[in-house]
């Protein structure tokens, strides 16, 4: 099933969304918010799944689903852990900065802000010209309760929903190599989730081995920044990251584990090529800049500025959006 939260109070109003993202029906007859559903998933999930099936058959009242009416599926989470699960990203930034390689960075979980996600179509404010704002796009899963020391099987079973995540990072507050992976808190200024969160069974065969095997589509001002394959070049899949999050302490229902940016290596193992050069491009501006510096001597891609429009999306094999789109206009 596919779930979303419409604008209503602090925690939104839960709705069930059709597979093609065109229709929705209120879930209040089952449970009013996603967090409440996660708190007692075994009780509420079957009823929500039945509602989703009825929606597909047109046997329940429905209304036109508009992504602009959505807040994040989980507008605020009790906890979030984040990792750079694709090792090409930190390796490339270090190489461009002339720093020594550090093999332990990829996949390392850090705490990340979760007390309020941007709505997927909310305007970003870039009022500090020195901020060097970067977009970083990846994947996230929302979990149920998981005990301390849970293994991979338990971790996989605790993944309730999958969605996309985009972060805005101030690179002026990071180290010269653009990384701050030694810190306990991820350096995100803001984060947003896709309008729709999807149960793993709904994803079918593209969800396997803790990874989502589809390209992540990232564009800026209508021009493709990247379409890297999310199922390739991972250091750790999301199942492994969830298990790592529960290694030393239990995690509660509604915890969000995110990973990104998606990063594919080049054929020779070095920097990937830009879309304009026949490559899959990048899911963040900093990686594009690092690749340009290494291959051309200088970074041509500017950081975010007022007037920019960003879009992050993933489509199925038929070209239909899976999660809806994160789309932010940047205002000064």
What string gives the helices and strands in order? EEEHHEEEHEEEHEEEHEEEEHEHEE
What value does the average pLDDT take?
91
Strand content: 25-35%
Low-confidence stretches: none
Derived structural class? alpha+beta
**Major β-sheet profile:** 6 strands, antiparallel
Walk me through this protein's architecture:
- With 332 residues, the chain is α+β, with helices and mostly antiparallel strands.
- 19% of the residues lie in helices and 26% in strands.
- The protein contains 7 helices and 19 strands.
- A hairpin with a 6-residue loop joins strand 1 and strand 2.
- The two termini are 38 Å apart.
- The model has no long low-confidence stretch (mean pLDDT 91).
TL;DR of this structure?
The protein has helices spanning 34-39, 41-57, 88-97, 152-158, 200-203, 238-245, 285-296, and strands spanning 2-6, 13-17, 23-26, 63-64, 70-71, 80-83, 110-111, 124-125, 133-143, 159-170, 188-193, 197-198, 207-208, 211-212, 216-220, 223-226, 256-259, 309-314, 326-331. With 332 residues, the chain is an alpha+beta fold. A hairpin with a 5-residue loop joins strand 2 (13-17) and strand 3.
Keywords:
332 residues; alpha+beta; six-stranded antiparallel sheet; six-stranded mixed sheet
